[in-house]
Predict the 3D structure of the following.
Amino acid sequence: MIRFVLRRLGFLLLTVILTSMIVFVITQLLPGDVARVILGREAGEAALQALRHQLGLDQPLVVQYGRWLGHFVTGDWGTSYSTKAVIFPLVMGRLRNSIMLAAMILVLAIPTAVVLGVIAGLNEGRWIDNLISVSALSVVGLPEFVTGLVLIQVFAFTLHWFPANSSIRVGTGFVEALPRLILPAVTAVLVLLAYVARLTRAGVIEELKKPYVRTAVLKGLPGRTVTVKHVMRNALLPTITVIAISFGWMISGLIVIENVFNYPGLGRLMVFAIGRHDLPLLQAVTMVTVVAFASANLAADLMYAALNPRIRLG
Amino acid sequence: MADAPARPSAPVLTIENLTVGYRSGSGWREAVRGVSLELTPGQTYGLVGESGSGKTTLALAVMNYLPRGGLVRSGRIVFDGKDLQTLGASDMQRIWGSQMAMVPQDPLSSLNPSLRIGDQLSEPLKQHLGMTGREASRRIGELLEMVEIGDPDRVAESYPHQISGGMQQRVMIAMALSTEPRLLVLDEPTTSLDATTQATILDLVRNLMQEHQATVLYVTHNLGVVAKICDRVAVMYAGELVEDAPTGEIYRQPLFPYTQGLWDSVPRLGDNKRHVRLRPIQGRIPSLEDLPEGCVFRARCPVAIDQCRTHPPVFQPDPQRKTRCFRWQAIASGEIDAAQPVPGDQTAKAEEASVTQVLSIDDLRVHFASRESISAWLRRQPPKMIKALDGVSLNLNSGRTLGLVGESGSGKTTLARALLGLTPPTSGEMRLFNAPLAPRLSDRPRSSLRRLQIVFQNPQEALNPYLTVEQTLVQPLKKLRHLTPDEARIAVDDLLRAVELQPEYRSRLPAQLSGGEKQRVAIARAFAPQPDLLVADEPITSLDVSVQAAILNVLQELQLERQIGYLFISHNLAVVGFLSDWVAVIYLGELMEVGQADAIFDPPYHPYTEALLSAIPLIDPGAQQEQVRLEGDVPSPADRPTGCPFHTRCPRFLGEICVNQRPPWHETSQGKSYFCHIPPEELEGEQHKVFSSSGRDQQGPRS
């Protein structure tokens, strides 16, 4: 097991280093001249040259990459070109917001999706299965900005249960932020729900066919014990993996939802950085995203192994 | 247990005129029709049939656990005085696992992979006997000891995948017996196990049944197993119970032609193709959608008459026996012979052909480096070698069959893969017609691809499901024999005729073929490029009993006709002994014994061969068989014993010498050689012929 964890950690490191190279090279290839973006259209060639020299943009690419990586590891992520703010605390604050939202999504999505999936799977082909599958699928077809706006209309403007605007200040605590997290989280849950529920359903249906379920039933165990103790333990393995992986998506991929609700997460920060051609900020956000994705993958692998004795004990 | 029966001899299970159907579209497919059976206390009842016979459906109906869509359409199943149809889900929960229990075919998939063995064993104890965790774990220790598991604590702590298949099945048996149920349904419990493991499990089952006085319904297709442990046998065919009799009587004189056909289509231990012809049952089992009117066996029956077009009732020749044959009296009196016709005899041709050496294998080794651990790598330890094959030398002549026998993990399939170039050997030489074979398939010329063909164990997976039979056969004809399309068409006709398939099969897809027909196509495909050597890796193992004989006959006829050398790989000594001219016994990647097929069944044998022969359940209830049982499981090839590889399990273990010294090869007077420290004179003094039949073989219609 220790060997397994070490190997996975090695893979994680390799992934992060490789993607850091890609991130670095791609941002170098983006059109536009950084110096000109910073100094404006009227700047003279001499001033531009001086700034390029100051930023190290005239050095060979490899040297620039090495220096950038060194700074990145030590937490010196530089200052934003466009806002002149120090990047590290800015990104970390946004990361904290994104993690809060992601946690909220998971708390709502997992129990709902798993319960619906298990019910559907146990009743394969019956009306309740069809109802769950069809309604989950019809929701997933709607774009997030549609469901988001409908939710705002109903729960903010009509019922006044939650605020329409989810913008929170940096450093707001979870409990304080909670009412502003619900609507964006529900929007994301509706996207995730169908996917996770269908996966759970498929897992349950597949496990129900296995002979060990017959063994459990023919032991005379009550149906609930068979389902919870025997079937779900195995059926949820793929679901858990997928949920863990989707955590990476929730950290930085909720761009539309964050925009609709005006929520200050990493996704919006990335859009901002792209719009302003703010290279250091973009690199920082992208790297955080990469690390988040890779860690989510690692967590998925480790959880799968921990729950599956066939892998854990080889 | 709880509900004691009113009378001690009252039947535990009564099945009355049972019909079970599966919903199919708007109608019903009736998998079991009009079956009546009665199991009295302490009886072991064999239920025999091939796939499609309805035996599994019947077993599941008895457990009151039919798959979705399955329904008891008429009749009754009365268990312990209760009509199962009238019981609800909660009643069944009280009965399942406490009064009736089931031991399934495949123990690994029947155990929950993510729960410890102890946990799974404790469930029925807690559920039905109300035991606490501590009481249950003490009882589990006793139960595991009862099924002869040496280290119960370790096994209870293990997950299913961590213990061997034999151990898993012991666990399932312990689980079934843990609540002392009135009725046990055993569904092919030894089919997925190795021969030597099967033998120990069968001994265990037989002893436990006697000890616990359990009533057993034993479902199997293995006629030897039935002969060994059942008191009575019920034979099912196409959903009907066609014959039902005490074991001794049904083996001595079957009164239904299908039963007779089954008995005759299996090679007995010691049979060889030179003096015994198998009589396969013609045709195929009718599908449930297309049942014939009248007797279900009519189309394949050699003694069918006009009367058989009406549905036969159950006849009772005596109070102990039942048969559904109109002509049972004529069969019983010997007036008619219900045996299947003997296929044409070509044995004479075999001896005329000139003999050349097709294959020689010299000192072949296949070693794999096992995965190193990081710590071993840091300490620069050499990687552990897994010796899948170690120093195997064999020769094979044209028109002859070399049988290779061994249990799983013995290296038989590795040898086949090395020959085909799929697993390159570490050292040693393989020569085809005295020309060396390159280790890798990619380095071999086309011509050697043509010369070496294989038939795999599982025809389901060996045929491309999207190609018709013709397309499958044309490919090798074009690629390896460079025939024109017209020539290929003619060649396809010849091939189909050779494997006894009608010409209309050319346009069929594998899904439209039965298992036996698929294997015929796979054999035709292997013969298409006109090979010189055919490797047949367990070609009949996945097939039904009555089909096996037909496939063996096809293989034998093709060999006589084309003088091809066969390497025939199997774990079944009776089948290998039947088809082979030479037999090699392999254990842990090394040959233990090599000899002519006739000689292999007579002492002196290598102790491993002796154990293998003793492990095979004979298809003859009266037969005498020595009990030579092997302890434990086959060691892992990564952890090979020193000295003689067999010493850890050898029943004739001598001591030091076997542990420290490699044994020599001895040659016996019958011309076979074996790898053991004990010289032949001494072995001959200690060993007897492992088995002797009760004599039916000599007098029966087969000789």
